[in-house]
Amino acid sequence: MSDFAIEAEGLGKCYRVYGNPMSRIAEAATFGAYTGHREFWALRGVNFGLKPGGSLGLCGANGAGKSTLLKILAGTTTPTEGRFRVAGRVSSLLELGAGFHPDFTGRDNILMNGIMMGYSKREMEARTDEIIEFAELGEYIDEPVRVYSSGMGLRLGFSVAMAVEPDVMIIDEVFAVGDMYFQKKCVDKVYELKKNNKTVLFCSHSLYDVRQLCDEALWIQDGAPAKIGDSVDVTNSYSSYQRTHIAEVKSEGEAIKQEEAKPDYVPDQALPRVVDARIYRAGSDEEIYQVGTGESFEVRIWWANPQPDETPIQLGIGFFRPDTTTVAGVGSHIDGFKVEGEKGCTRVTIENISFLSDQFLVAVILFGGEGTHQYQQYLMRENLVVTHKTHDVGMFKLERHWDDLGDLELPDDKSAIREGTVAGASGGESGDNAGWIE
Length: 438
Description:
Blueprint: E1 6-18, H1 21-29, E2 37-50, E3 55-59, H2 66-74, E4 81-86, E5 90-93, H3 106-116, H4 121-135, H5 150-163, E6 168-172, H6 180-195, E7 199-203, H7 207-213, E8 216-221, E9 224-230, H8 231-248, E10 273-281, E11 290-292, E12 297-304, E13 313-320, E14 326-331, H9 332-335, E15 343-350, E16 358-368, E17 374-379, E18 384-387, H10 413-423
Parallel strand pairs: 3-7, 3-8, 5-6, 6-7, 11-18
Antiparallel strand pairs: 1-2, 1-4, 8-9, 10-12, 12-15, 13-14, 13-16, 16-17, 16-18
Helix pairs in contact: 3-4, 4-5
């Protein structure tokens, strides 16, 4: 017997694509002597094994083959090549409202869905109250499903799928619909399955959900596996690919384009200018444009200033998200560093970068002596990609330390805030508003 709850070996699915209906008819009429189709492999070469109690997340672009894989494993379509095995009772939620009859009530559909999944009418009747309570549809449970919204359909479908106590749960992008309250209920239910050693196969465009819900992840690209492994590592790789791909396909009319990272404009040779700027691994001459959170790197700036006595300069570096939101910046004038001479190379070492996974535009700004007037903005030839291997979310990794303060009593809120504020202020006036900032 296999140790895996789900295993796939060389799994693939091919579809026949016909240019028009007549091509299909001609092919059928000639018993295949005439070929009127072309083959389209929606999925090919998929290999993985998932042990009982494990959780695997699928990520990839629309049309990559994720849903095709889930349909094969759920048994709703057959593979063209390869083989697979799913051990135990399977429950799947592939499409909202799939299997529901629109003219039947929600209550009737609960019974019908359960019977189609192999349960007896008596077994489903015993679970009906639990399903209705979880779905929270109220009086709509006795209304035809055709009057349900997509969110109500999700509630009912998810409630039925979870109530049958599956050994393997297959979920395809269902958390995108429904209110936040019900989404939390769904996530809690998935965690409950994992705690009970059930196997979860989860597909989502939300990389956050994949990281948090799954131990492993499979990135599918153009129907083939691109990477499989730890969910944080795989989603980092996919996220980096996404941002690089987006940068490559930006239209020429956009303000910031990947191919224009090094501008053709040449500044007046009599004025200060940035000649070049590059990023290197800290302490080496290896040029890099991808780092991990917590790593250090160098930015080296080559500059020229023909008249340093008349036009003293300062250097700054700005980090921006692709939408041009400023994330962070440093400047020689801020740190008291002097940039002197007619030409040279200045190095800035960024230590233990705290950025989380994202792609950043890096610009070098050449300032006048006071750090106010800008002579030039020089955009790096490549964006800086930052990856991280933790479950932190947001833009920065926060250094933190947790403590257990035991039975510390809760202070009086207003007096505590006032006391703390006044203590940090000087010359505050007495009265109710003393030390407060309005």
